């Protein structure tokens, strides 16, 4: 019983969200059943099954079909959105003459259902943090055996680094379409895997491809092998290529309708990152993506790779090494993959703003009446000291910022302040969405920041220590489940900072800071 397995090995929930969810469920279940009601079906009720099946009749059905092929064949217009449509009854004769659909059939045996839930004993050389257990020209493998949650689960994260993935807008588009088509073809496995408690994620990044497989560790390797084999031997379906390419163009066009504050964040990222392609550049290059060109690109993309991975959970080091070897062997066998040169493993940099520099970039939004603004004050490269200066300053100004700019001045519903970090560089940012013009919003942020100097100077030592304590508590809050802990470690790996004990190290430094340190940070 998959539901019983899911309940037995359920991850720990965050208390605030979980209590709210259970409170809502009390409308439907008695309190003694509310924890297990969504999972455990203890009574077999064929009468309920028959009742539902009895409702699946032609007289109870409404069929909606959406397609461009109906253009010019409609006779009605929807009142609110102006959508053209047609409505007609399906005759009894059509229902009576309908044939059986061969696509409706019982599913194949689910090969991903776990059967072994053994919690493996900790190995003698088990480490507190991820350890580098393999480092070759082809791959770098980080491994950590779970020593906190003791569930039969694991997280497998892979980054496939390729210099071809983000060379120009054309290559960026092809990388995106390749993975969307690949995910589309993997749907035959994804549903069965999800039923069995396995999930995967596959995305294109500016450095190549990201793949993760999470869930019960017993059959994880089966799903992973199928994904890698499909990746290395992928054949494009021409019809799906056209459909997914069209959907991608729609998503690029729909960007103009996103919220103004999202546009502000997007344009700042473009301005500050060493290499970034705009939506317009991607749209212009999309017409050049043809089926033959995409096929050639896939072969080129897989021809040379560097793989960095983190395998974390209820697995042994030997099993982790075996999984990594399987990934490499599959790519080498089917795609003839070779390693990259060390000089090709270069990360993008952030633009350094000159001291006292002030730059403004404006874009007109033709969809929304509101304005969005992101103001970014670049500070320095990430380090233990700079991280804590910035985070403590953000902690101190957070409540006054919200109270002043949103509550008192009512600049807008969206008012946010906090750290911004990218490519190893960081700073303070303010994000506001408002009906008021951007130059006015900027002036109010500047005015607010000027008041902060006196606010910090007049702050009592007791109040200052409360801010330190609040930040320390937040930073030392332990992950509630394996996937959350793995995500923290993975963030260190993809940033190539590898500071797995960051929270303890930085909080220890935080507790040494004085009010004068923050005043000096503010003035500099």
UniProtKB/TrEMBL annotation:
One of its GO terms (cellular component) is cytosol. Residues 392-490 form the Coenzyme PQQ synthesis protein F-like C-terminal lobe domain. It comes from the Eukaryota. One of its GO terms (molecular function) is metalloendopeptidase activity. Residues 7-284 form the Peptidase M16 middle/third domain. InterPro entries: Metalloenz_LuxS/M16, Peptidase_M16, Peptidase_M16_M, PqqF-like_C_4. The keyword Protease applies. Keywords: Hydrolase, Metal-binding, Metalloprotease, Protease, Zinc. Pfam families: Peptidase_M16_M, PqqF-like_C_4. One of its GO terms (biological process) is proteolysis involved in protein catabolic process. Belongs to the peptidase M16 family. This is IDE enzyme. It comes from Sapayoa aenigma.
């Amino acid at each position: 019983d998959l539901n019983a397995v899911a309940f037995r090995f359920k991850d720990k929930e965050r208390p605030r969200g979980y209590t709210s969810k259970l409170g809502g469920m009390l409308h439907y279940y008695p309190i003694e059943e509310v924890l297990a009601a969504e999972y455990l079906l203890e009574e077999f009720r064929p009468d309920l099954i028959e009742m539902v099946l009895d409702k699946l009749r032609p007289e109870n059905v409404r069929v909606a079909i959406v397609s461009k092929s109906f253009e010019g064949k409609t006779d009605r217009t929807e009142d609110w959105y102006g959508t053209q449509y047609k409505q007609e009854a399906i005759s009894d004769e059509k229902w009576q003459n309908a044939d059986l659909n061969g696509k409706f059939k019982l599913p194949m045996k689910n090969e991903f259902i776990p059967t072994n839930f053994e919690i493996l004993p900790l190995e003698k050389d088990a480490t507190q943090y991820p350890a580098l257990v393999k480092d070759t020209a082809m791959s770098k493998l980080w491994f950590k055996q779970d020593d906190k949650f003791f569930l039969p689960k694991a997280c497998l994260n892979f980054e496939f680094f390729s210099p071809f993935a983000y060379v120009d807008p054309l290559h960026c588009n092809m990388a995106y379409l390749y993975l969307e088509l690949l995910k589309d073809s993997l749907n035959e496995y994804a549903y069965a895997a999800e039923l069995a408690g396995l999930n995967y994620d596959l995305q294109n990044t500016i450095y190549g491809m990201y793949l993760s497989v999470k869930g019960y560790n017993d059959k994880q390797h089966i799903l992973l092998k199928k994904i890698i084999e499909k990746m290395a031997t992928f054949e494009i379906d021409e019809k799906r290529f056209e459909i997914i390419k069209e959907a991608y163009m729609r998503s690029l066009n729909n960007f103009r309708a996103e919220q103004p504050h999202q546009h502000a964040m997007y344009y700042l990222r473009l301005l500050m990152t060493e290499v970034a392609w705009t939506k317009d550049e991607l749209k212009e290059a999309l017409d050049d993506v043809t089926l033959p060109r995409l096929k050639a690109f896939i072969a080129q993309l897989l021809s040379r790779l560097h793989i960095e991975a983190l395998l974390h959970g209820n697995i042994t080091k030997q099993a982790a090494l075996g999984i990594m070897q399987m990934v490499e062997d599959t790519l080498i066998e089917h795609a003839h993959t070779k390693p990259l040169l060390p000089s090709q493993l270069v990360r993008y940099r952030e633009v350094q703003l000159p001291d006292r520099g002030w730059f403004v970039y404006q874009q007109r939004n033709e969809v929304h009446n509101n304005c969005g603004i992101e103001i970014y004050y670049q500070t320095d490269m990430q380090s233990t000291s700079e991280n804590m200066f910035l985070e403590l300053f953000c902690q101190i100004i957070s409540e006054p910022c919200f109270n002043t700019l949103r509550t008192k001045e009512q600049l807008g519903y969206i008012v946010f302040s906090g750290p911004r970090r990218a490519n190893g560089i960081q700073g303070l940012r303010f994000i506001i969405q408002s009906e008021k013009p951007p130059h006015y919003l900027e002036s109010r942020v500047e005015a607010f920041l000027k008041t902060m100097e006196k606010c910090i100077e007049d702050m009592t030592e007791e109040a200052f220590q409360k801010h330190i304590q609040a930040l320390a508590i937040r930073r030392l809050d332990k992950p509630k489940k394996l996937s959350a802990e793995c995500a923290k470690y993975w963030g260190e790996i993809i940033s190539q900072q590898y500071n797995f004990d960051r929270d303890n190290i930085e909080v220890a430094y935080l507790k040494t800071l004085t009010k004068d340190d923050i005043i000096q940070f503010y003035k500099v």
